[in-house]
Design a protein that fits this description.
By secondary structure, the chain is α+β, with helices and mostly antiparallel strands. It is built from 14 helices and 23 strands. It is globular, with a radius of gyration of 26 Å.
């Protein structure tokens, strides 16, 4: 009760503060100050290009690109420059679901199986009782299992089918665990109920009514335009063309758009679902989407906000006594921070193409402090102290190795291993070491002890996080290697066991050639 009273007091204080804060929208001096801030932070964080938009109510206070969308060609970022907003897509997907709720075609608390009869998870109870609200609130019990869609190239149908083989790490509704796969399911749910692919339904019901005409769902479509950003894997590297980590539009993170359109999205949310006086989505439905559902236990390293919560496609928290709704998005090296202050009718979005979260956070915090009327903080200094701290657990060799032991003949470990959810893992010998391939990931293995190896090289791929994972081989009763367990599986926080595929024998008959006799041969692989 004390916590609720404190939160209520903070809300009252926030409203009072907003009423006494002078209106700065449209000020030339404000725009000049924001220009200087954006460029200073771009240089401080070695960001190639990015941008920011600020809205207050229905007014656009600021709309500006900074740096380059293509550094090599000296092409500047503009408000119409396209970039991938990543997981900020989730709020759009939740709003599309909300539109189906408004139309009476879905209910938040009905099981997903009511609408997707072929939906199946590893756990039978979760399969039968996972609701639409659970789906969007990351309460399925599943950890990320992100490699299933990041690395494999599986189709959407294949990802959906393999969900049943992915082990949970918690019971249904026991624990918040951020999960992109459940939003892929949400996209399928929209399609099944509406009869239209989720991009088409979203466009007709939400995007078109508010004039978001520069939204794309695949890089192929975005690249047909003349104003799109490259992404930069490193600040000093060459720009790369945007591409998708999947072959299909994902309701979890595939939207590509620009600042000009995003300001319309912020205004819709700040105005309780209305656009130019007309209702695009019912205010009661949008209130459900914006309502906190679960405490996430997430903390920001240099921002005073606690507790962190999650609703339906949005995160919620208190920022220095002010309530905010927000979401971050990351795809390739495009990173986005979108924040709304409903009580102040204030929205801020910041993005960059160099993968620098500190740039987004420092710019966002500085601007909202000024516009909400909070005492200034040197956010650059705070962020630099965090950025300069050595990352824990990132170096190779974290596992103490037994130097006295040597592995058995490396050839005994070679082969193809299979998991019904994760697919194939291949291990082969290269010189005096082992190599492994998991679809797009290829790396080496280093002996640890006995039948245990570890990933020798931490992957530098920007779309997957392989660390020092242990590869633990198991033998059958005959002493032959029959399984390997990756502990933990990257992006899953759970061990995954792959079973060795048996060698197959193929008998082939070759016909006579140039008058010679035919022959038979047995091939084993």
């Amino acid at each position: 009760m004390k916590v609720l009273l404190l939160a209520f007091g903070l809300f009252i204080g926030t409203v009072a503060m907003a009423q006494t804060t002078p209106a700065l929208a449209g000020s030339d001096s404000l725009r000049a100050a924001l220009d200087r801030l954006l460029e200073k932070q771009r240089q401080a964080w070695l960001v190639v290009g990015g941008g920011m938009a600020v809205v207050r109510g229905q007014e656009i206070t600021y709309l500006r690109g900074v740096g380059y969308r293509d550094r090599e060609r000296r092409l500047p970022v503009s408000p119409s420059t396209l970039w991938g907003i990543g997981s900020c897509t989730k709020a759009f997907t939740a709003t599309a679901i909300g539109k189906l709720v408004e139309q009476g075609k879905l209910a938040w608390d009905q099981p997903v199986r009511t609408y997707l009869t072929d939906f199946r998870l590893y756990d039978d109870h979760a399969t039968q009782h996972l609701t639409v609200r659970d789906l969007l609130g990351h309460l399925s019990g599943l950890p990320g299992h992100n490699l299933l869609w990041l690395s494999t190239g599986f189709s959407e149908d294949e990802v959906y089918r393999r969900l049943r083989y992915l082990p949970p790490t918690a019971d249904l509704r026991q624990k918040y665990q951020y999960n992109n796969l459940m939003y892929i399911v949400a996209g399928r749910l929209i399609e099944r109920v509406s009869g239209r692919p989720w991009p088409d339904f979203l466009r007709s019901q939400i995007l078109d009514p508010i004039g978001m005409n520069s939204v794309y769902f695949t890089p192929t479509d975005a690249l047909k335009t003349s104003d799109f950003s490259l992404f930069y894997p490193t600040p000093n590297g060459n720009g790369e063309l945007p591409y998708s980590t999947t072959s299909y539009p994902r309701a979890s993170g595939s939207i590509i758009t620009n600042l000009t359109d995003i300001v319309r999205w912020m205004r819709l949310n700040l105005q309780q679902g209305k656009w130019q006086g007309a209702s695009v989505i019912a205010d009661t439905v949008l209130a459900e989407i914006h309502q906190p559902l679960v405490i996430t236990e997430a903390t920001a390293p240099f921002v005073n906000e606690s507790p962190s919560m999650y609703g339906l496609g949005w995160g919620m928290s208190m920022y220095r006594g002010v309530y905010q709704i927000s979401h971050n998005g990351g795809v390739l090296n495009f990173v986005t921070q979108l924040t709304l202050f409903p009580n102040q009718q204030l929205g801020i979005v910041v993005w960059n193409n160099t993968g620098n979260l500190f740039f987004n956070a420092v710019v966002t915090n500085t601007v909202r402090d000024a516009l909400v009327g909070l005492p200034p903080v040197d956010w650059l200094d705070k962020a630099k102290k965090v950025a300069d701290q050595p990352a824990s657990g990132e170096k190779s060799g974290n596992f103490p190795r037994d130097q006295a032991t040597t592995p058995r003949a490396l050839s005994t470990y070679c082969g193809t291993y299979e998991h019904p959810g994760y697919g194939d893992l291949t291990i082969w010998q290269k010189g005096d070491s082992l190599q492994f391939r998991y679809y797009r990931t290829v790396s080496g293995l280093r002996h640890h002890r006995g039948d245990v190896f570890e990933n020798a090289v931490r992957s530098q791929k920007i779309d997957q996080q392989w660390g020092n994972n242990q590869f633990i081989f198991q033998r059958d009763a005959a002493g032959l290697i029959s399984q390997v367990t990756i502990s933990p599986m990257p992006e899953a926080d759970v061990s995954i066991r792959f079973s060795r595929q048996k060698s197959r024998k193929y008998s082939l008959t070759f016909p006579p050639f140039l008058g010679g006799p035919g022959c038979k041969a047995d091939l084993v692989f």
